[in-house]
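User: Could you go from structure to sequence for me? I need the amino acid at each position, not a summary. Structure tokens:
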């Protein structure tokens, strides 16, 4: 749930959008110190959805996720090579693209320091009675 492309300037309003889908893969990553699970989502997450929660049917904060990005994978499905009379070569290729949303396990973000918060996320949440 988030506000991707939500601003309606003429109406002076924001539109809330929610997406429903499936996690198609989950793997650990070494990019963050906690080595959290990274979830590939069957839908592409539009700009503006980053930071939105990924909620599982029976999840707690540590197992839920946060939308962070999109990923695109491509596979060559057709390649055509033509040699012209002058000896030059023309190569045509067609690719099939797979677009997936990416979320990271929310609990892995808790110990990270954020300048905007002036400390870690867990400190901020505890200070405001949210955790």
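Assistant: Here is the amino acid at each position, in order:
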């Amino acid at each position: 749930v988030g506000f991707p492309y939500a601003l309606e300037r003429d109406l002076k309003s924001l539109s809330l959008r929610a997406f429903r889908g499936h996690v198609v893969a989950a793997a650990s990553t070494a990019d963050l110190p906690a080595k959290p699970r990274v979830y590939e989502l069957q839908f592409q997450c539009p700009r503006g959805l980053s930071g939105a929660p990924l909620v599982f049917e029976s999840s707690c904060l540590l197992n839920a996720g946060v939308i962070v990005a999109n990923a695109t994978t491509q596979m060559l499905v057709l390649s055509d090579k033509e040699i012209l009379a002058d000896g030059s070569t023309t190569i045509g290729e067609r690719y099939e693209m797979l677009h997936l949303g990416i979320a990271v396990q929310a609990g892995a973000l808790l110990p990270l320091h954020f300048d905007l918060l002036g400390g870690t996320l867990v400190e901020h949440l505890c200070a405001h009675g949210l955790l």
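One structural detail worth keeping in mind: The radius of gyration is 21 Å.
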